[in-house]
TrEMBL record, chain A:
Protein name, UniProt field: ABC transporter permease
Record keywords: Cell membrane, Membrane, Transmembrane, Transmembrane helix, Transport
PROSITE patterns registered for this protein in UniProt: ABC_TM1
One Pfam family per UniProt: BPD_transp_1
Phylogenetic classification of the source organism: Bacteria, Bacillati, Actinomycetota, Actinomycetes, Micromonosporales
Keyword Repeat annotated: no
Organism: Phytohabitans maris
Membrane topology, as annotated: Multi-pass membrane protein
Entry's transmembrane regions: 42-65, 117-143, 155-177, 183-202, 241-264, 292-313
From TrEMBL, chain B:
PROSITE patterns membership: ABC_TM1
Membrane topology according to the record: Multi-pass membrane protein
Boundaries of every ABC transmembrane type-1 domain copy: 95-324
Lineage: Bacteria, Bacillati, Actinomycetota, Actinomycetes, Micromonosporales
Protein name as catalogued: ABC transporter permease
Amino acid sequence: MTLAPGKKKEKLDRLAELSAVHDDERGVSLWREAMRRLRRNPAAIVGAVILAAFVLVAVIGPFLVPYEPTDTIGVREKVVSSGHGIIPGPSADHWLGYDHQGRDEFSRMVVGARQTLIVGIVSTLIGLTIGVLIGGVAGAAAGLGGRWGRLVDNVLMRIVDMMLSLPSLLLAVSVAALLGPSLVTVMIAVGMVSVPVFARLLRGAMIAQANRDYVLAASSLGVRKSKIAISHIVPNSLAPVIVQATLTLATAIIEVAALSFLGLGNPDSAVPEWGLMLADAQKYLDVRPGLAIYPAVGIIITALGFTLLGEAMREALDPKLRR
Amino acid sequence: MFRFIVRRLLQLIPTLFGLSILLFIWLHRLPGGPETALLGERGTPESRAQIRESLGLNEPLPIQYGRFVKRLVRLDLGTSISTKRDVTTEFLQRFPGTVELTITAMLIAIGVGIPLGYLAARRRGSFLDQASVGGSLLGTCVPIFFLAYVLKAIFAENLGWFPSIGRQDPSIDATHVTNFFVLDGLMTREWDAAADAIWHLILPGVALASIPLAIIVRITRASVLEVLGEDFVRTAEAKGLTERTVRRRHVLRNAMLPVATSIGLLTGLLLSGAVLTETVFAFSGIGAFIYDAISNLDYPVLMGFIMIIAVIFALVNLLVDVSYSLIDPRVRVR
């Protein structure tokens, strides 16, 4: 008994779909279960609240600030003279005082939240995209096996090893030194640091998934290997990558600050960003330590928010802890 | 074991080859270029050409790379543009400082981290547990150079308990044999010199230890908790071993395996952190020199230092893998 080719394909696809792990009414999906446990974890709630407040400030804050963050108002009013170390502190009009160029520090902190969020997200996305591409191709190639599969996997992993052979900050320094100081450079440099992490995570998870029963089921039903890799293995391997991305957002914000500190940050300090503000403030620590403390506290709290949420997600998604 | 080491060393070659090419291309494309860094805006075309000639920058890139590798094998990494001295000499002179600093940080991180993580796991849910978990989360979120500035402002500048900069008080007439200042002091029996060098290490050491400490506390705690739930611990307790024996022979020994791996991985973190900490404390190690090299666009220094660090980093990781297989017999079987 033979089926028409089109019908056979249709049937196989349906069978493969049934064999794969996915949401349905009877079972509880990995993600729904994880959400349920996240909601019960106080650390996750704290992290989520911090991040919600941060995003809110970043999105609507810039429309509400009392002064332009680039306006050197203090210099015009002749109350700020950084050359003589005169930078007035908080007052009724300027809640956090002026910065070293006579700009309103409060407005810069609020507008800086947006810039910090953008820089963090973009650099994480750069690392995530390149890392997932490399890891995904290597994982699929390793799964396909054969001479070419092993070769591709090997070459890609040696490239990743190369990136891992440098301490992270020095890798970022190398990239930043190559591209010249600019905001884009900072984001690429910080993004590159996380490429090997994402690549290794995804590849490892894919190789672990390749031995699972549902993959065996799908392949014994005749589903093409490339389709198994893309529509079954990759989605099931993404959980650790997503957790890592949340944690990377925290380190990205801190690393941007470190690069700025080393003089490899955005050379244009007109647009405020917390890492850059913190790095700039080190010259005025004796005069106005507040200029360093405000952005530092902003960075610490935000990084803590991403870390709390990321760690809680890791716990929630850990199959060993599932009940 | 021997074959394992040889294989790992061979794996290092393609990595280093690729890295050398990348570094070579990267650092040659530095914006402004070395001649601008040397002469600034005042450089005349003639003096620029002269400098390009003397640095070999006029040759085609493949030939420059060939020279670069040849020099690399001979450990001749060129001359620093800013200090006019040999890069290898500069490195060797400064490396002991960084080693002393990273060892100090590691000792602080391990010495505080493992007992704290262990106690937190034993008293799960207690105030100590919550404080160490919260503290370790916070520890990874503080930019290390900010922490360094805060420590310096409070304990060096305000309270005056510790020196704020340098590796040793210059007024102490110390003899330097190895450039490991603490070791030198002990070897030459100049006790005050050794004590002063240790004194200078504490604040930067604490700043540098912050992130490794946070990580070690978390891993130790998680690992002890996992081992405490294992069947073999219950068996050991059931057969009537004293709590002390169970703790030492069964819990701690097994719980230390993941901690040992993480300690190896922390080396990279320490070297990264050293760049920032050394800069804040004007501590003359390789980190502070890398900072200077960045501001001076001193590309032979940047290139050479990064290359040497990559090799050291790889060797440390190899050492960790080997020692790991010594601790855990299961790894050797593979």
